[in-house]
Amino acid sequence: MSESSCTHDQQVIELYTALANNPARDFGWEKGRQNALNHGYNETWIAHLPAQLWDYCAAVGNPFTACAFRAGATVLDLGCGAGVDLCVAALLVGAQGTVIGVDITPAMVQLARLHAIQAKLENIIVHEASIEQLPLPDNSVDIIISNGAINLAGSKQKVFEEAWRILRPGGRLSIADMIRDEPCEQVHSCDNDSWADCVAGTLDKQELLDIMKTSGFHAPECVATTHYRTARTTVGATFRASKVTDTGNTVHAG
């Protein structure tokens, strides 16, 4: 790992450790139960899961709107944080399904495991690891979700190559992430010091789509933008894509 990668990873870990330890702190972006409602999270999910879980909801969009989630599926959450989307996914795939979280911040990994226990969801597994090097075998996951985490990665190409590797043929990618809303070069806030605040690491929509395509994904698409902003120059967006089989089949993930 390069020195610059170590530096920006440490920024991310420090910021999200602070969020893990103090969810009520103002970090300059929306979070909490109301944020989930603003993104269209189902009120049934909110009522079913522990109230304290929603304090950590810093969702930039709703990855559950861009893909169908069938019972029994295996779902991976890239950058799972405190486990909000892990728990929602576990409800959707049921007890016969499996939900796996990966996050680089130790404090968030601990919280995600705790929240799964508090929610009485036994089908959740959480790994402390980089989303650029996933601790999972090839062709082992049906659906990949992520919410505001890929923009934090130093190499988006590695993230999507890893995502393609571990998806089963026919698997789906359904993510929400921050994208650049205007040329980054024009504003002072887009310097390397703002990686952890979802600014410097953002790409524009087409750049992200191009990386998905060169990583092997079929028909990558930006479904919509959201109301979410971390700076004047960034906006949330939802994306979907698939991993086709040799015959072009994309129905495996439901």
Written description of the protein model:
The chain is 30% helix and 21% strand. It is an alpha/beta fold and 254 residues long. It has a single domain, classed as Vaccinia Virus protein VP39 (Rossmann fold), CATH 3.40.50. Strands 3-2-1-4-5-7-6 form a seven-stranded mixed β-sheet, sandwiched between helices. A hairpin with an 8-residue loop joins β6 and β7. α1 runs parallel beside α5 and α6 (156-166) crosses α7. The protein starts with a helix and ends in a 12-residue tail after the last strand.
Radius of gyration: 17 Å
Would you identify the CATH architecture? 3-Layer(aba) Sandwich
- Kindly estimate the percentage of residues that lie in beta strands according to DSSP: 15-25%
Domain count: 1
Low-confidence stretches: 184-198, 247-254
